[in-house]
Amino acid sequence: MRVAIAGAGAVGRSIAGELLENGHEVLLVDKAPTAISVERVPMAEWLLADACEITSLDEAALQRCNVVIAATGDDKVNLVVSLLAKTEYGVPRVVARVNNPKNEWLFNESWGVDVAVSTPRLMSALVEEAVSVGDLVRLMRFSHGDANLVELTLPPESALAGTQISEVEWPVDTSLVTIIRGTRVLTPTPEETLEPGDELLFVAAQAREEQLEDLLSVRREGAPKG
Fold it and tell me: In this model, does residue 132 exceed pLDDT 80?
């Protein structure tokens, strides 16, 4: 997979390193000469250019990329890069970094963004995830389909504790993708039994989040919420 990363700062370089370790082809693009540190990520391709310029993106051969990551520290730049990648080059997957949470509402498919990653929001969500049991925590938003990656730790009093996955009537537009049980990462199967303390990760439509939380929480059908 070929990935272009706009922004060769600490965030961009870190992402590049991870992708290279996983066997992907990576191009780092930055307009600041001081950011071009080939020795820090020697296996990557490097391009000194302004990622907001069509001529630069032509030089980067963006049309050959499977993924573009807009990872600069400037939200305006990340939005422009995302829009150009999607509309001018038809890049299948565009991921954008959100630096200011107040701008998060802009990072959607109208600007070419498939996945928006807000570092402040993600850190907040991870704190919530670490201390919350029985409450739904939103970890990441996907622009297409208005879907979110959400997590809930199953409380001991949940009505679903001890229930097989195949027996659960999940809300529509939700999908259980992973169960984290202690140090194990489990792929959900129909025969798997939900256990108290399981961390359940779902991709779910935002409109279904409350219904999903009601299903997994300690509340029984007909009981008042909250």
Answer: no
